[in-house]
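Sequence of NB-ARC domain-containing protein (Panicum virgatum).
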Amino acid sequence: MENMVDKKNTCIQNFILYSQAWVEVKKQNRCIIFLFPWNLIFIFPIICRYIIRIDDLQMETGLWMNIQCAFPDNNKSSRIIVTTTNDKLAQICSLNCRVLRMQPLDMGSAHALLERELPVVHRCPTNLNQSLEMILKSCECHPLAIVNMACHIRETGNRWEWDHDKCEQACNGIGSGLVNGTGAFVGMSQVLNRTYSSVNYNTMTCLLSLSTYPKNHVIKRKSLIRRWLAERLITCKDKRSGEDILNECFTNLVEHNFIIPVKISISGEVKAFRVHQMMLQFIKAKANSENFVTWIHIHEGQEKEQVNNICRLYIHNSSPKDPSIGNKTELSRVRSLTFSGLASKTLMNFKDFKLLRVLDLECCENLKNANLDTICRSSMLKYISIRGNEGVSKLPPSIVKLQYLETLDIRETKVDILAMEVIKLPQLAHLFGEFQIPSELSNLETLFTNNISNLHTLVGFCIDESPAVVKLLPLMLKLMKVKILCRQTTPRSEVIEEDLLLSLKSCFQRKLSAPNLSLGSLCIDFSDVRDLDFLHRLEEPSFLHSLKLRGKFSEKSRGLPRFILLSDNLKELHLSGTNLGCSVLSLIQGLQNLQFLKLTEDISITEAGEIICECGWFVSLKRLCFDVPVLPKIVIREKAMESLKSLQLFCIVLGGFSGITHLLHLEELVLPSNVTGPEADDLALQVSRHPMRPKFDRPLGDPGRSIGSKRMLTRKNGFQTLKLGKTS
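Predicted 3D structure, token representation.
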């Protein structure tokens, strides 16, 4: 009798929760219709096997909780399928199953869909394939975009002949339709406007700023955030730093699928990305309507009309002659300038840019030293990037006038000597390049003992040609990230190595009190120039959370330096060309907080035998990457690497990998497609039997590449993602 009462109460509770969930879902009109007698509603979730699909769920976690309670686990293989564009919500809904990401159509299916939606009368008899390909590239093979574009072409009727030029015009001129929801793009407009309106004001502002980049341009995340900081793009209303808020905004852009990650670091962070072409059209139209960005494209023989009230300016120059953007164009209020195309001394006369804060000259064509002569006339500059311009070999001496400069990026240029005066700039926080700083120690000691330096990031100084800087590392009290290089042209100096050891010891022992900051990221890149044996004399524990070592340890000093094993805060470790191989796993398995590990070895290193990962190894490890020529057999015991989510096996020869099913949280396994044989087949079989059904990615392999070369993961995402939530 008591069981009957309990069952009745459970049915009533389920009915109440089900009714609440049904009302909320019905309001959204995002649920399929269930056909069953109403008098079975009390016992339906208990005795019946069910499948429910909720499409395009937004941030309504209360609705999801009600659905979960109304449809509990009944051990009948029931399913609840949820689609959403929000990654964070997908993680909430997924619980004990994997999140599935919807991909765009393949080119064949996209081509077939476009031809089906497009009547023959609208097809151009000439250049048909080129026109269709242009449309598909513009839509990036997304079904809704293809259907809307075909509808847009159909609406024109026979009023104009669909030639290649008008096809290009149609692809490039849909921004206003996407924003206003007019014409054929009502469907795409609803999706984009709803997603755009769902984010906060700061995230909207950051999204609009991406309209300054051309289509298919790959944008680097960290450079972008430093640029946002320099421009003071967002408002800080709480006690958090601007960098924290901007990182949160960037995370929102990723979670809402506004951008496509292109390069993923070993830590799982997005290193570089691009904007969806449809989304770029949308935000450009938004930015234009709000006067957020001004675009000026200069072609040969073109006269540009007067433009006023410019805050953010993007200039693309295609004219080989020395063009002008007009004498009456008001430039004094420009705060951000992005330049691309052919360098021009006339266009790069910065004397009129009185309030300029951000100057981006990355990867210009034919940029020379002379083009930078007037760069220092904009005294308010906070951010300068001339990255990727090999024609630049030196900076103008007057750069010392930029007293507000915070970021200077000279990577991938020929600038190999940096004047001491640059280090003296009082606000300089981030310095990037590959340079030497020839200076007397006494000249720099005065600077740092007076606590003038604001350097947070010092990436790329050469140890042999900058002995004074090595000794001054402990005096850079705000230094958080440093990268030390070694050139191949200089002889070995034990004195400098000893100075480096003493400096690192002092940095590790630095007292963490204002204004001091801890050294959190260290990269030592000696490549094949010399060994890293001297690091064995460094035995002090550190506060490092990221460590990257590139260089060999000799056979006499096998093993890792003691300071690594004592770094309890270490979260990311990258060992490249150390000559230690995969056997290093047994040495570092006890690092309790290690989350990301990448092991890279040279082609000359081969390994045999078997590595057994025992119970309790790598308790916090989430991502593990091997980039080696020959991967020895690895055995995963039960309760080893319990937190591992991503396993990447870049190798030429696979020695075998067993125990995949013991990795209970595994979400993806990467193995190049050129790795074949019984070991690869066995690995695929283990993945298919895994309870989490992890993604088995087989990217194209490159058998001829040099093992140990820089490698990033590539990922393509669609506008919308499919999330699977399983209740039983």
